[in-house]
Amino acid sequence: MQPVIERLSYIQLAYFSRPSSLRRLYRHIRRARCRRILEIGLQCPRRALRMIETASLGRPAGDVVYTAIDLFELRSPSARPGASLRLAYRQLAASGARIQLLPGDPFSVLSRRANDLLNRDLILISGEVDSAELAKAWFYLPRMLHAESAVFRFAPPGEGSQPAFRRIPPAELDTLAGANQRRAA
User: Fold this and answer.
1) How many angstroms separate the CA atoms of 65 and 44, rounded?
2) In this structure, are residues 41 and 125 in contact, taking their beta carbons and an 8 Å threshold?
């Protein structure tokens, strides 16, 4: 009975969930059998739980590793409120996946921890991540990937469209990482 419920839950996420822009992301997680997920900018713990649920289909939840880099309580007062570190951990740990929450901006966290975050199957970059901080952090992303990895970045809505996650091609990722390396030199 459990596999039927899992399958129905996946169908609901991949084809009927709201916002519809996330459906492509859930389908990618299932097709690519993503097991190690890194999210930069934990925009919504509910979305993270859904990604973990999708990655856990057909395997024990403990095989899924979810890592999030976020400012948590360090957000500026003018920023959109988000989950606290404690609340996010409590919600995500209930999934049974191995959870690692890293407080800080992308550059400072990745400069210290990129070598600990190797072989990520999926890296998801939220739209709330500061572009200046992200520009400095691109350098660290390629070392965290393997040949089948995917990087998705939130793309703000164009005129008449809704926001979506756009997959960043490997060549573009190499260009972004290389541009930062030249700036640092």
Assistant:
1) 17
2) yes
Per the confidence metrics, is the pTM higher than 0.85? yes
Spell out the per-residue pLDDT of the chain, length 185, in tens. 467 777 778 778 777 788 777 888 999 999 999 999 999 998 789 999 999 999 998 888 789 999 999 998 877 766 677 788 999 999 999 999 999 999 999 999 999 999 999 999 999 999 888 888 889 999 999 999 999 999 999 876 555 556 678 899 988 998 988 865 544 44
Question: 2-184: which CATH number, 3.30.160.20, 3.90.1150.30, 3.40.50.150, 3.30.420.40?
Answer: 3.40.50.150
Domain segments of the chain: what residues? 2-184
